[in-house]
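Input:
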Amino acid sequence: MPAGAAVALTVRIQTQDFDAAAECAALTAGRADIGALVTFTGLCRDEGGTLAALELEHYPGMAEAEITRICRTAIERFGLSGITAVHRIGRIAPGANIVLVIAAAPHRHAAFDGASFVMDFLKTSAPFWKKEHRADGRAGDWVDARESDARARAAWSRQPSGG
Amino acid sequence: MTRIVYFAWVRERIGKNEEQIELPAGVRTGSDLLSHLKSLGDEYAYALEHETAIRIAVDQEHVEHDEPLGSAREIALFPPMTGG
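Output:
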């Protein structure tokens, strides 16, 4: 990133859906120094038709603060031009959007690494929890944390800075 | 008094979203707090049974179980996170 270039950081938690294209346009508006934009969208997945919806709970205040801390770390580590991170809460139906991360950088590797880093840390340290609502009406369970997510996060401390 | 907040299945098992607790002088770390809370009743003992599964945040920042709680205004207890 050229010295003095602005860093655009937007973090939002909301119940309503988001528009990835509109968020990309907002992140790059008025800027000619961004050469790469990587967009990740996480969706509510139903394996086997048993899920009616996911209920997303969060820790108000800390959720925003933790995602902001993660984004600032990524901006510093990969030299990003900006990040937009939007996380939905409340009841989310299968197929609907849950999370959006857009990483902007002068070049593609930083943008890919930035988006991946933010997601790996968001999943393991941003205070959100998913509860299942089952299609058959029986009480659903809280989703368990995955060991593979912890490994993905840990991998970032074993490799040199990307970019 | 310290505000203690609970989330996800910790909240469901304890049966409350939050409460104000006067922490005894011996409660210095997160581990001390878990031990103290587990002595308060069966619902706490059940919610906090597997201590290594409980995450702790002090004033909205993650801390390890052995870190001092200091003069925390708000302490949160919750399970491993599953957002994203």
